[in-house]
Design brief:
Strand order of the largest sheet: 1-2-3-4-5-6-7-8
CATH topology: TIM Barrel
Order of helices and strands: HHEHHEHHEHHEHEHEHHHHEHEEEH
Strand content: 5-15%
Shape: globular
Helix content: 40-55%
Largest sheet: 8 strands, parallel, barrel
CATH superfamily: Glycosidases
Radius of gyration: 23 Å
Number of helices: 16
CATH architecture: Alpha-Beta Barrel
Distance between the termini: 78 Å
CATH class: Alpha Beta
Number of domains: 1
Number of strands: 10
Structural class: alpha/beta
């Protein structure tokens, strides 16, 4: 039994210990974290209105030859990105040919030289560059399941960060990995911390872009705790609801391929007609939730607000560096509505964005290899860009 006087003394001592320990915890943080945070918030202003340069140095495992990359997206495209009013480009890079380029060996020994040209041309056009490691599934699986795979990945970042550390650090950002597909958020947190430490070792001045596990959605972002390094921007992707943004797509949900011309916002007057596109009862029921779950501009705003709240609560800057809607089978007016609703929701929370993508299936231009791009002015308008 503890007598009252003794108990009160113990409580006083414990309270005093808490008061004494709190400053010690604060002091235990990296001394330059506050300065790093100020840098990250300032540099996030270079990532307000971006575009993804996809399927160029990534997502084309069958061909990364000079002939293909020089024709797929060229210097005139980079100049057009700047002219349209984009302030940054997310440059996706497949790590396998990148390793060959760093070694000047293998099938693509000049891969890094061509990548350097793209980065330097973007900087020359006044564009910031998100250097994004964007692996294929096999590489992600190795990182997900093997410590050797993690070490290979960390080593790649140590070398790549050192390579680009001599560019303007206000304009060159290092994104750790696109959509890591690591289901365990704790394992991903450890992998990300190791990669961030390797980057910082090689490139003390550059800002890092970190993300959540799995597919980098908002639900993944909020599983993470900020890194000790303050010079970090946190990223999420937004394609909700997929029933609209991925209609007609041949990947992801197996029944998406059946859906065409789905309206945004959802319209109950067309619901039964739209549902009739799906042959299976279970898939029709899944699709019906597009109407049942309250989707519309307000729901998008609430989703983005949740990400913004995580950023505010943790005192860190945010970007959304992928959002978009597949254009091949969507109604153009509805697609513009969704792009506008998502873009304005992000901007209302002061979150910079990078649209997916420049010339692919979600694109802002139409382009054939080696030919000038044709701008989709409706997308430019939906993005609120004025051009230069």
């Amino acid at each position: 039994m503890i007598y009252p006087a003794r108990r009160n003394a113990i409580l006083f001592i414990c309270a005093l210990a808490v008061c004494v320990c709190l400053p010690a915890v604060a002091l235990a943080q990296p001394a330059d974290r506050a300065a790093g945070l100020r840098t990250a918030f300032a540099r996030a202003q270079h990532l307000r209105h971006g575009i993804n340069a996809s399927e160029w140095f990534a997502q084309s495992a069958s061909d990364y030859s000079a002939a293909r990359t020089s024709a797929y997206t060229d210097d005139s495209d980079i100049a057009l990105m700047a002219k349209l009013g984009f302030d940054n480009v997310r440059l996706s890079i497949d790590p396998v040919p990148l390793e060959q380029g760093l070694d000047h060996s293998g099938q693509y020994p000049d891969f890094l030289d061509r990548l350097d040209h793209a980065v330097d041309t973007m900087i020359a056009n006044g564009l910031a560059v998100q250097v994004d490691i964007h692996p294929e599934e096999a590489y992600k699986q190795e990182v997900r399941n093997s410590n050797d795979g993690v070490e290979r990945f960390v080593m790649l970042w140590r070398r790549l960060a050192a390579h680009y550390a001599n560019r303007n650090p206000d304009l060159v950002f290092f994104e750790i990995m696109n959509e890591p597909e690591v289901s365990d958020p704790y394992r991903w947190a450890g992998i990300q911390a190791a990669a961030a430490a390797a980057i910082r070792e090689s490139a003390p001045a550059n800002t890092i872009i970190a993300t959540g596990p799995n597919w980098s959605g908002i639900q993944d972002l909020v599983t993470q705790h900020p890194l000790p390094d303050g010079n970090v921007i946190y990223n999420f992707h937004f394609y909700e609801p997929h029933e609209f943004t991925h209609q007609g797509a041949s990947w992801g949900g197996v029944w998406w391929i059946y859906t065409h011309n789905i309206p945004w916002p959802p319209n109950e007057n067309t619901m039964n007609q739209d549902l009739s596109q799906i042959p299976g009862a279970a898939d029709r029921y899944a699709f019906e939730h597009y109407w049942l779950d309250g989707w519309g501009p307000h729901r998008i705003k609430l989703e983005i607000d949740a990400a913004a709240a995580w950023g505010k609560n943790n005192g860190v800057p945010l970007i959304c560096n992928e959002f978009g809607a597949y254009r091949q089978f969507s109604d153009p007016a509805s697609r513009m509505n969704w792009i506008r609703d998502t873009r304005t929701a992000l901007e209302s929370d002061l979150i910079g964005w990078t649209m997916w993508d420049y010339r692919g299936g979600f694109g802002v231009v139409w382009k054939q290899p080696g030919q000038p791009a044709k701008v989709d002015e409706q997308v430019v308008d939906a993005l609120g860009l004025k051009g230069k």
